[in-house]
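Per your request, structure below.
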C-alpha cells in the first residue's frame, strides 16, 4: 500500500539505523518536542534535513512537516486543540510500517538564575494579592467589610494605582513568627489618581495577621508619607488593624512613633485623611487624631485607647466596642471623627469628595471648578428668612445652601456641636470654608464644643488656603457653671486665636445678632476681616436691649425700664453704628449676598498677608 520508494543519497560508507517506532514512543517524541524550547526543535529539523534519509521521501516529508508544526506550537499553552495536534502528528509519523530516524536524546537545561528569580517574584506577588487567604477574605466579607485591595481599587480612578513594597515582609523570629511571613506584611501602600490628581494611600489588611503593625509595616507607611511630602500630595490612611504586633514588642511601638512624627511633620503641609474601617485601638488611635479629617464606618469600626476588657477590669463597667468607641460616639459626643458612613463604599466616596475641595499641598491654591450656577444669581427668599421676633429660631443651614453654589455643600461634623456649622462649599466654583452659627440649636450660642469644632476647622482652611466665609447670628457665649468650670474661657479663646491668626481671605456676614465678646470672636473686622457685611436687621451690640437696660436702669420701675429698652433698641440694635465706625463695610440686602461674596473672592484671590516671624505661637490648647 506504500508508494514506490526512490533512491536515497546516503552519507559515504554510512548507513542509517532504522527501527519501527511504536505509537506510544512516537507520541512521547511528539510531546517532548512540543515542550522543548524553539531552538531544540529547530535543531531536530536541521538534523532531519541533513540526514536526507528515512523510509522514503514520504517519510522525510512527514518528519519535516511534523517538526515544523511542532515549531509553530512551541511555547503556546497546552489546550485541548494543541493536544489533538500532537496526537495527529504522532499518528502521521507512525503511519503504517514507516521507519523513522531514532529520536535524538533531548536534554532539559536547568532554568537560569533570572528564570528562578522571576518565578519567585511571581509566587510572592500572588501571595501578596491573596492576602490572608480565601477563608479570611470570606470572613472579612461576612462582616460587611471590603479587603484592603478592594478598598484601594475603589478609592482611585480606574487603573491608576501603583503599589510600593509589595514584597516586603517582617523580620521577626520570636514566637514562631518566621513561619508566618506574608508578602506585603499586612498593609497595601502606593499612589494613584483621584480626579486625575496624585494621592498616596496606606491600606491595612486585617486578613494578614489582623493588620497588626510591625516594624516593617510601619516602614512601608513612613516611606509613602515621605514621598507624599516630597512631591506635595495628599495621604489617605485606611485603618483596619488590631494594633501593635505584640510578638515584636518595642519595635512595633517605635514604628507607631515614627508614623506619628510624620503626621506632625505633614500637618498643614499636605492634606491627611484617615478612614477607620475596622478596629483601631491603643496607640494606633493617635495617628487619626493628628490628621485633618477622620471618617468612620458605622457598626464595623471603632476607636479607643483602652478596650472593653480593660475598662471592665479597672472600672467594673460593662460596655461593648460600639458603645465605647463606635462611629456614633465619635461623631456626636467626642468629636474625634467628622463623619459616620453606612459602609466602606460611602466612606471611600466621602474621601474622594473631601479631596476635591482641598489643594494638593499648601503650595497650591484649591482647584476651582466650572459651575452653571451664576454668581449674579439673586436669592430673594433670603429677604424673608430671618424672623421679625429676635428670639425666634431659624435654620442657618438653609441660608448657607442658598448662598453657595447649588449642590456644593459638604458639611463636617454635623452631629457634633450642632450650634455651629462647618462646611466645605463653593462660590462661583471656588472652594471655601463656611462657618455659621446655628440659631436652631442653643440659639446659636458659642460653647466649649462649638468653639473647639470651629477653631480646628478654621485652622485647617487657613493651612490649605481656603477662604473663610462666616455667617454670624450669635447672642454670646453660653452661660453656666458647667461651661465655666470646664474652661469656656480657654476653649473660647481657641476660636478667637484661630480667626486672628488666619491669613486667608475672610468674608463675614452678620444676619441678625452679634453680641458681646462673641461678636469679636466670629471673624470681626478687628481680627483682620477683609470684607464684613450686615443685613438690615442685624443687631451689633454689647448685649440685647432688654438685658442692657435692666442693668443700666436697675431699681427703676418696670415701665421705665421697658421704655428705655425701646430707645436702646432703636439706637443700638441695628447695624448703623457699626457701619458709621467702619466695623462693617456695608449694609446689604440679603438677596445680594451671593453676588457680593463671589465678587469679593475674586478681589481677594491673590491676597498676601504674613504673620510676624516666630518659632510658633502659643495657642491656648
Amino acid at each position: 500500500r506504500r508508494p514506490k520508494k526512490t533512491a536515497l543519497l546516503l552519507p559515504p560508507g554510512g548507513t542509517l539505523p532504522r527501527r519501527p517506532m511504536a505509537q506510544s514512543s512516537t507520541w512521547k517524541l511528539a510531546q517532548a518536542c512540543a515542550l522543548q524550547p524553539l531552538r531544540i526543535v529547530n535543531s531536530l529539523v536541521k538534523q532531519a534535513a541533513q540526514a536526507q534519509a528515512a523510509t522514503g521521501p514520504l517519510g522525510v516529508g512527514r518528519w519535516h512537516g511534523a517538526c515544523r508544526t511542532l515549531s509553530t506550537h512551541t511555547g503556546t499553552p497546552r489546550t485541548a486543540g494543541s493536544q489533538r495536534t500532537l496526537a495527529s502528528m504522532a499518528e502521521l509519523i507512525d503511519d503504517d510500517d514507516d521507519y523513522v530516524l531514532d529520536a535524538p536524546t533531548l536534554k532539559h537545561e536547568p532554568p537560569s538564575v533570572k528564570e528562578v528569580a522571576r518565578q519567585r517574584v511571581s509566587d510572592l506577588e500572588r501571595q501578596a494579592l491573596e492576602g490572608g487567604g480565601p477563608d479570611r477574605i470570606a470572613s472579612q466579607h461576612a462582616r460587611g467589610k471590603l479587603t484592603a485591595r478592594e478598598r484601594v481599587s475603589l478609592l482611585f480612578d480606574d487603573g491608576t494605582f501603583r503599589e510600593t513594597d509589595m514584597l516586603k515582609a517582617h523580620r521577626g523570629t520570636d514566637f514562631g513568627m518566621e513561619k508566618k511571613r506574608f508578602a506585603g506584611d499586612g498593609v497595601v501602600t502606593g499612589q494613584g489618581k483621584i480626579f486625575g490628581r496624585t494621592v498616596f494611600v496606606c491600606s491595612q489588611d486585617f486578613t494578614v495577621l489582623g493588620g497588626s503593625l510591625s516594624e516593617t509595616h510601619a516602614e512601608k507607611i513612613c516611606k509613602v508619607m515621605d514621598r507624599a511630602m516630597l512631591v506635595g500630595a495628599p495621604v489617605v490612611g485606611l485603618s483596619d488593624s488590631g494594633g501593635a504586633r505584640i510578638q515584636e514588642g518595642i519595635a512595633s511601638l517605635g514604628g507607631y512613633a515614627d508614623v506619628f512624627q510624620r503626621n506632625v511633620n505633614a500637618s498643614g503641609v499636605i492634606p491627611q485623611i484617615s478612614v477607620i474601617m475596622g478596629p483601631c485601638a491603643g496607640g494606633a488611635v493617635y495617628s487619626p487624631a493628628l490628621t485633618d479629617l477622620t471618617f468612620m464606618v458605622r457598626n464595623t469600626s471603632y476607636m479607643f485607647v483602652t478596650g472593653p476588657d480593660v475598662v471592665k477590669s479597672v472600672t467594673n463597667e460593662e460596655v461593648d466596642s460600639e458603645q465605647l468607641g463606635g462611629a456614633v460616639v465619635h461623631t456626636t459626643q467626642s468629636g474625634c471623627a467628622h463623619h459616620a458612613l453606612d459602609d466602606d463604599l460611602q466612606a471611600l466616596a466621602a474621601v474622594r469628595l473631601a479631596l476635591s475641595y482641598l489643594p494638593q499641598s499648601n503650595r497650591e491654591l484649591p482647584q476651582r471648578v466650572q459651575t452653571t450656577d451664576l454668581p449674579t444669581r439673586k436669592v430673594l427668599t433670603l429677604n424673608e428668612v430671618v424672623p421679625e421676633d429676635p428670639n425666634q429660631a431659624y435654620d442657618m443651614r438653609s441660608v448657607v445652601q442658598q448662598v453657595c453654589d447649588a449642590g456644593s455643600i459638604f458639611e463636617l461634623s454635623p452631629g457634633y456641636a450642632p450650634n455651629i456649622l462647618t462646611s466645605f462649599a463653593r462660590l462661583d466654583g471656588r472652594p471655601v470654608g463656611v462657618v455659621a452659627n446655628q440659631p436652631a440649636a442653643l440659639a446659636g450660642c458659642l460653647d466649649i464644643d462649638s468653639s473647639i469644632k470651629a477653631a480646628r476647622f478654621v485652622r485647617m482652611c487657613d493651612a490649605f488656603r481656603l477662604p473663610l466665609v462666616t455667617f454670624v447670628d450669635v447672642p454670646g457665649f453660653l452661660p453656666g457653671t458647667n461651661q465655666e468650670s470646664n474652661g469656656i474661657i480657654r476653649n473660647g479663646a481657641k476660636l478667637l486665636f484661630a480667626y486672628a491668626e488666619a491669613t486667608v481671605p475672610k468674608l463675614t456676614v452678620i444676619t441678625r445678632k452679634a453680641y458681646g465678646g462673641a461678636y469679636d470672636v466670629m471673624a470681626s473686622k478687628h481680627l483682620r476681616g477683609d470684607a464684613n457685611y450686615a443685613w438690615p436687621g442685624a443687631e451689633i451690640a454689647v448685649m440685647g436691649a432688654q438685658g442692657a437696660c435692666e442693668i443700666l436702669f436697675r431699681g427703676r420701675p418696670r415701665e421705665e425700664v421697658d421704655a428705655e429698652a425701646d430707645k436702646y433698641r432703636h439706637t443700638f440694635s441695628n447695624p448703623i453704628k457699626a457701619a458709621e465706625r467702619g466695623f462693617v463695610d456695608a449694609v446689604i440686602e440679603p438677596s445680594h449676598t451671593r453676588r457680593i461674596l463671589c465678587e469679593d473672592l475674586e478681589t481677594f484671590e491673590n491676597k498676601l498677608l504674613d504673620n510676624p516671624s516666630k518659632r510658633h505661637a502659643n495657642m491656648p490648647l
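The chain has 23 helices and 19 strands.

Regards,
D.
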